[in-house]
């Protein structure tokens, strides 16, 4: 909320420097984002009177001026300007002066004649015709108003003001205006507050003879006030009003439009003026837009409306987007003779939804969205009529149209002073509490330690004891709070078990050369289609975001693979030849759709690798290390993920529970991401691994007796997994089996069709002594028997 210091002084007596004012407002809870002096880049430039003018002896275009700059002696300045004469009042930049364009003026000589400054044009002072009449004239700026010689040009141009930008919090929309800030400043400074008291005269007649107002939706428009002004006398608004409007970042237009804008800035209540002669059937209807209706707004843009949007319509068509912007057809123009003036309260969520849907945001809509006071609607209307009357901008018709279904009553709060002291921990006299609350406009009385406070509707942020305590404390001063040492036991923070396990897993993967990535949990609604999943796949039941930033972030992901493929595709496209990546994040799985309860947030690990030295077994090895970290007993089975290569994928069981899937990405899927090389991904359900109770690590002495190695080569059906063969060997080997290692798988010549040759090395060892041939043969027989049960045949 920008407000000039001079405008603020109209409502409150300010007797401290602007810096102190800002500091005190900050301590009262009003953050000051900036405080800028308008003319701080103009220094030592004054209004000077030309006393004597004579030509330069050595130049045909230079003139020597003797200038009265308010000092005892005249100052000599040489200029080349031809539009000046004796007696003119002009801007003079004296020795060691600065201009807003950055120019530094020093005394010197021109053609041998001493010049102690420079006469300035409007351009050199960075002025336009809107800033000062005559500023665009070629030559020196001739000042039109009388000022004593030596007057600082900042004062002449009205640039001796400060613009203060207050950051108004969401709970204080009542301070989003001049009067609100001034009221707070008066309390902070302990000075007198001078609110405007609207009064005006009418020209008689009856508004009912001019117009009728009907509100069809009181839910979206709780109050609507209208007045009629005729015989408009449209002209520029006075300088003080233009200055206040400009300082707040708005542009002056004419007296009528400026009055509505000024009242909005002053009271916080947006207003709108309709060209009375453009109102069809002389009727105003506050209603929802009809199907397929459209409106062209003041900015010249046409908008298609929906039935949930509130409009101000005449007897035939919409004339205004309620609380946002007026229509082009009812605009106030220079030849407008009569107007209908509106002041209303519109529901904040309705204004916000309409504004967002149409892509329109204005000063008015911003204030309606934050909330305005329903009682203040009438005060703002009366203030606007007062300004119309005072500025002789038109004739006010007698009567007011006020449509509402009842106005709220003030809220009464009863709070003991003792409860406030207990909450604040600061000893504040009871009389001071009452004084502060009354100064803030909260009418309060004290009886037997009980505060009875009447809270006006404009302070809807005050609901109970805590709010009253806050109001008292911020004015009494936070500096009264005495610091006390912290008391209590110091407890060392610890990580949750899942976090500890996660950190160990990340450290393991980093040790294997993988980089951790972090991607959004929101993905495109179309991302899941790239994985070629079946239409009934549960992963397609994703949660849609109600208010997404865009379609790219419109869905909560049920898998991490698409995000991993996107990262790998980005690196490949940037000519990164190889990479290993991992991400541990959450999958969001809805219990049912539409969503009626919190979804399951399942921790998941995704690993991705690519490069000429990487293959399926690289990824498999990384997955095995993760499984081993958690003490999982793993098995591998065939999987049928459509986004993976049909012959190069597997599902991993951890303690007989499906836990992970890994494999090479299907070429069609890779192509959809712009990937032209082999890439491999794995997705691991970390909740399954976290649930495993890892066996304690035990240590045993180094073996004292030698191991025996035996090789088993066998023929079996090609579709028998080698994992099944390995488990058969482990089962047959019993407790004397120390290690099993696959060293050959062969299909080809000399092997029957549909068969494969598989060879294992088996190490046997006993802790009690050296194994005998009989023991070795017995174990070998058991192993062969287990293999034969699977259909394997020992090669001779």
SSE topology:
Blueprint: E1 2-4, H1 5-9, H2 18-27, E2 31-37, E3 43-55, E4 63-68, E5 75-79, E6 89-98, E7 104-105, E8 108-110, E9 113-115, E10 117-119, H3 153-156, E11 162-167, H4 178-189, E12 212-215, E13 223-230, H5 239-247, H6 255-267, E14 271-275, E15 283-288, E16 294-296, E17 302-304, E18 310-313, E19 318-321, E20 325-326, E21 339-345, H7 348-358, H8 363-370, H9 376-390, E22 395-396, E23 401-404, E24 411-416, H10 417-424, H11 430-439, E25 443-447, E26 450-455, H12 465-476, H13 497-511, E27 515-516, E28 522-523, E29 543-544, E30 555-556, H14 561-573, E31 579-589, E32 600-610, H15 616-629, E33 634-637, E34 644-654, E35 657-665, H16 667-672, E36 679-685, H17 686-690, E37 708-717, H18 722-733, E38 737-746, E39 755-764, H19 773-789, E40 793-794
Parallel strand pairs: 12-15, 27-31
Antiparallel strand pairs: 1-11, 2-11, 3-4, 3-6, 4-5, 6-7, 6-10, 8-9, 13-21, 13-22, 13-23, 14-21, 15-18, 16-17, 18-19, 19-20, 24-26, 25-26, 28-30, 29-30, 31-32, 32-36, 33-34, 34-35, 35-36, 37-39, 37-40, 38-39
Could you explain how this protein is built, in words?
By secondary structure, the protein is an alpha+beta fold. Helices cover 25% and strands 28% of the residues. Strand 34 (644-654) and strand 35 (657-665) form a beta hairpin. Helix 5 (239-247) crosses helix 6 (255-267), helix 6 (255-267) packs antiparallel against helix 9 (376-390) and helix 13 (497-511) runs antiparallel to helix 15. The longest helix has 17 residues, at 773-789. The chain starts with a strand and ends with a strand. The model has no long low-confidence stretch (mean pLDDT 92).
